[in-house]
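Hi there,

I know you've been waiting on this one. I reran it after we fixed the sequence typo, so this is the corrected version. Both the input and the resulting structure follow.
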Amino acid sequence: MKKEKIAYFDRIAEQTAKRKLNLYYKRQIVRYCDYFSHDEFSVLEIGCGTGRLIGSIKGKNRVGIDFSSKMLDQARKNYPDVEFLEMQAEEIQMDRKFDLIIISDLVGYLDDVQAVFTCIQQLCHLNTKVLVTYYNYLWEPVLKLSESLGIKLRTPIQNWLTQQDIKNLLFISGFDVYRDTRRILFPFYIPIISSILNKYVAKLPFFRYFCLNHYTFAKPLPIVSEEESKHKYSVSVVIPARNESGNIENAILRLPKLGNHTEIIFIEGNSTDDTWDKICEIQTKYASTHDIKIGRQSGKGKADAVRKGYDMATCDILMILDADLTVPPEDLIKFYQVMASGRGDFINGSRLVYPMEKEAMRFLNLLGNKFFSMAFSWLLDQPFKDTLCGTKVIFRTDYYRLKSNRSFFGEFDPFGDFDLIFGAYKLNLRIVELPIRYRERTYGSTNISRFKHGLILLRMCLFAARKIKFY
């Protein structure tokens, strides 16, 4: 790094020691990064400066890297429980892998951004998440004016990169960008005003484009071959069934072999027909060819049934297949391939891409799904077409992390769809939608109450907005 940049960061270190920096702005970044870190994570911050961010977020093992010895002296003094290392960002050499790598407000000062992105590949495992924060280039005139007026410390010449520039640099360095968001409309603290502008106004359409900070989320591009992925994981398929007697055997006959072992778990839920008897019959009939487990839920609702099935599961990947078979069991092989290849951490089926059969979804249900898809696209900062498709897939290890964090959003989702999606977002998983063909029922009728359950889901959506968008 050039001498003038080193001198700049030495001055930053001096001002930090004297508490002259804008602590409000720094705290907002810390708070947002902490949202996506977890107690069991190993976390690395590149360009950690005086250690405020890495020293303030959750993590089992935390490491900060910087090139400024003055910065690191302060960091070690203030955060003795964090490991700090002095080295250039473009020349990192470590024999460790991290769960979360943060590069905050650094890319503007780097001589070669691509070299840094390429360098951190060695520090990533397949599920590592990379979080890059950087200035919105629209703010360049404002920040230059602040420097001229003496409000802000004068900086050396910066890279003013666009969101697309960062996305492209990450891609050619071997990363897949899965989410972009913007925050902080007003970087100074004025009681009430700062909170209103940054917590609410900054999240609204139009205003969000003027936020000071961009946040880009990425994970390493998968390098697992299709042949290698075929037998990499075992799969548990949970089939919640209420009044679905006529579909039980078809679910077994049509389910493809998934991964190196397929475990099928039927959970019967307070049926008024002979569904439970049929499940017991099928378990006995196919005992020699299929690994079938069965259970009856003590509570109510699909969410309760799915959770009971997940608790019984023993395989690497957890899948949900609705017993009405409106999502073809044959399509589960597609979900497995996306997970096993490393192209996603949480896969959500989408029924609203391909044309569906005439009686597959009632008109009001379709309208409700369209509404929730728009709401989720805004809430989660990524396109989302279908929130209520019953088929969802997650790694069992991630599910248990989600389960331990469930109280963050609450537990009043009767179906479990929002619970899983919001939980996957909070865990910073790479959420992927997979289009499927949605079929008509061939047996039974829907268990969904459009208005009653729709109001519950709307309530949960509003609650989650406070926990996600306006957090």
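Quick highlight: The chain has 17 helices and 14 strands.

Best,
R. S.
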